[in-house]
Amino acid sequence: MKNLTPEDKNRIDELKNHLQERKNHLLGYPVTLNFDYSLLYKFLQYPVNNAGDPFYMDGSHHMNTHSIEREVIHFFANLLKAPENNYWGYVTNGSSEGNLYALYLAKRLYPGGVVYFSEESHYSIEKNIDILGLNYQKVKSQPHGEIDYKDFEEKILLHQDQPAIIIANIGTTFKEAKDDIKPIQDILGKCKVKKILYPL
Ligand SMILES: Cc1ncc(COP(=O)(O)O)c(C=O)c1O
């Protein structure tokens, strides 16, 4: 920052002013304005890098926060009732990468599986399906954003003999709709979808 020209400094100021001005017109949707990251500002002076596996790789770069990353994973493992001492994970750079990694694991576990997701699912799902070259069925949504279970059943019936990879939303981006796991499980049972699990 020290070597910046007056023009560069000016551009940075302009960006700051632009964001400040836009903030005054933001209702807080679909992101929140209710945060205060000021406690974290001091960390911007360090080249922190969490590359690698937070559980197995210490590596030579010690400027990381792997121990905190593991704490985050323990928190979510507990929330999701993961089997004790038998889970793994990492903190992604955002939800798009989270969706990508989840679909990647599903692809490894269920080769030849079909991904079912609703019209209201975030667009990163469709993009990641394309990146991974997966088969899919896009299911209709109800007007309030929840998946349409009747259409889901019809789509499932088209691929009964293939493993089903289900994207169930827990708060869609635009309507905060939630897909109910119970009817989804009932439909899978009723349609006798094959459960073929491959070792990773
Ligand atoms: C449900 C959902 N998935 C994925 C994303 C993409 O998130 P990111 O920008 O962190 O990749 C969003 C962003 O709004 C989202 O609402």
Describe this structure in words.
- The protein has helices at about 5-25, 65-80, 95-110, 125-130, 150-155, 180-190, and strands at about 115-120, 135-140, 165.
- It is mainly alpha-helical and about 200 residues long.
- Among the domains are: about 45-90, no CATH class; about 105-190, Type I PLP-dependent aspartate aminotransferase-like (Major domain) (Aspartate Aminotransferase, domain 2, 3-Layer(aba) Sandwich).
- A 3-stranded parallel β-sheet has the order 2-1-3, with helices on one face.
- Strand 1 (about 115-120), helix 4 (about 125-130) and strand 2 (about 135-140) form a beta-alpha-beta unit.
- The protein is globular.
- The mean pLDDT is about 95.
Q: Biggest sheet, strands in spatial order?
A: 2-1-3
Tally the helices: what do you get? 6
Class based on secondary structure composition and strand pairing: mainly alpha
Number of strands: 3
The gyration radius over C-alpha positions equals: 22 Å
What is the C-level CATH assignment of the domain at 106-190?
Alpha Beta
Shape: globular
Task: Give helix % range.
Answer: 25-40%
What is the architecture of the domain at 106-190 at the second tier of CATH? 3-Layer(aba) Sandwich
Look at the structure and give the mean pLDDT. 93
| CATH topology-level name of the domain at 106-190 | Aspartate Aminotransferase, domain 2
Unique ligands: pyridoxal-5'-phosphate
The CATH superfamily name of the domain at 106-190 is Type I PLP-dependent aspartate aminotransferase-like (Major domain)
Q: Which blocks of ≥5 consecutive residues have pLDDT under 50? A: none
Order of helices and strands: HHHEHEHEH
Largest sheet: 3 strands, parallel
Q: What is the CA–CA distance across the termini? A: 46 Å
- Strand residue content: 5-15%
